[in-house]
Amino acid sequence: MNLARTVALHLRKDMRLEWRSKDAANSMLFFALLVVVVFAFAFDPVLEDSHNISGGIAWVALVFATIVALNQSWTRELRNGVLDALRLAPAPPNGLFLGKVIANFLFVTIVEIPMAVMFVVFYNLRVLGSVPQLALVVALGTWALVVNGTFFSALSIRTRNRELMLPLILLPISLPAILGMVVATENILRGDASPAFGIRLVAVYDIVFTTVSLLLFESVLGAE
Amino acid sequence: MTDAETHSARLSHSEPTHIEVRDSEPAVVLQGISKLFGRFAALHDLSVTLPAGRIYALLGENGAGKTTLLRIIAGLARPSRGTVRVLGGSDARAVSARIGYMAHATLLYDELTARENLDYFRGLYPAAQLASIEELLTMVGLEHVDLKRRVGQYSQGMKQRLALARAMLARPDLLLLDEPFSNVDSGSIAMMSTLLGTLRDRGATLIVVTHQLDAMARVADEWITLHAGTIVKRETSHNRLPLSASRGDER
């Protein structure tokens, strides 16, 4: 069966389910905004130091918000046992995985827009470096979080404490990507150093983990 | 004419399906199957061969291992010991397109409509073997249902019939049904059991886990009783005691 067609089928279904339930978007949005506001009160946003760490704060907010959303991502397949129907279908399992990754990527990207506005307002930010480079870092970083999160969320789906398991597995494994994102973002925001190393690190991380996830997903889906 | 008779007449006039009957090849061959959950054996050294083109009623008290057996045949669970051959193959994935499975749960998205659900699952199967949505809904007696309503708003019986339609969408050679009649009204039960008979007549093999013996009495070819993970009784409909006499025995 055609992989692209299967990906589109799963993506359309996930977008439709999210549009109707708004489970992931609502929880992710409110959580991210809460973190941004709390950090704005915890650090004085007008200080130069706060500007220096704002890239880190943005990614911390996004990482935790993404985890909240990713926990929901496979839960809807568990309701009514739908996962069994998906396991039985002869369509390529990677189509399910990629469809879900792309859907989660879109949900997180949508949440990043109001979050960016909040950051500009609370931290009085001005991008001194290249805006297209910042967009590239955000896209690569979001993909890194989402591809890993979707994979490990599927892995922990049948565990009793899956809400706890996901961050426990995801955060240590995502550390190289988070480091790359934070360094690159801060360099671009300050405009005083090249973000090339951070961007390269996240790009390589994305390629490696997307490939590994695609290779292993069928075994994860087939596990009892 | 009763609802079931009307439905039966409608089925006999519907498009014939093209299920290939493989008389020489048993639908299911299980040899020495055991399934352990920790130290608990849900199935214990179970062996059975089920020839194709028949309806098997799988009976037994709660916890006898019926659902576990069905999941192993479907390829959703792996036996701890023993070998499984389904539709001539030992790789469940290779024959999954020819297996239909209906579980306790509906295996449907409550947030989607009936049409959206069936459309989505049809997309996961090869196009050549698919039944149309209208044909499926007619088969399960849901042709007059408002297809714009979300499945979550359906009654339990309607969900159950839609779940059966989903299981049949790829015209399976082997249909595994886990308590298909639960929460279904008596008229719909008659309709569904007529449908099972029709599918069998078209060449499909059906394994039906049920506690509702009356529903299966008209159509089952063989009755297999499980107890504590092993088959304790296997009888054809011909040598089986009349239902009223056998009821106490099954319980």
Provide the CATH superfamily of chain B.
P-loop containing nucleotide triphosphate hydrolases
Major β-sheet annotation of chain A: none
Rg measurement of chain A, Å: 18 Å
What portion of residues of chain B is helical? 25-40%
Unreliable runs of chain B: 12-22, 244-251
Number of helices of chain A: 8
H-E order of chain A: HHHHHHHH
- In what order do the strands lie side by side in the largest sheet of chain B? 5-6-7-3-8-9
Percent strand of chain A equals under 5%
Order of helices and strands of chain B: HEEEHEHEHHHEHEHEEH
The helix count of chain B comes to 9
SS-based class of chain A: mainly alpha
- Assembly type: heterodimer
Give the DSSP E fraction of chain B (strand runs of 2 or more residues).
Answer: 15-25%
Q: Domains counted in the coordinates of chain A: how many? A: 1
Give the topology.
The complex is a heterodimer of chains A (224) and B (251).
Chain A: H1 3-21, H2 23-42, H3 48-78, H4 82-88, H5 93-123, H6 131-155, H7 162-190, H8 196-222
Chain B: H1 3-13, E1 28-37, E2 40-50, E3 55-59, H2 66-74, E4 81-86, H3 92-95, E5 99-102, H4 114-122, H5 133-139, H6 156-168, E6 174-178, H7 186-201, E7 205-209, H8 213-217, E8 222-227, E9 230-236, H9 243-250
Parallel strand pairs in B: 3-7, 3-8, 5-6, 6-7
Antiparallel strand pairs in B: 1-2, 1-4, 8-9
Helix pairs in contact in B: 1-7
Please characterize this protein's 3D structure.
The complex is a heterodimer of chains A (about 220) and B (about 250). With about 220 residues, chain A is an all-alpha fold. Chain A is built from 8 helices and no strands. Chain A has helices at about 5-20, 25-40, 50-80, 80-90, 95-125, 130-155, 160-190, 195-220. The longest helix of chain A has about 30 residues, at about 50-80. Helices cover about 35% and strands about 25% of the residues of chain B. Residues about 10-20 and about 245-250 of chain B have low confidence and may be disordered. The interface of A and B includes residues 9, 82, 84 and 85 of A.
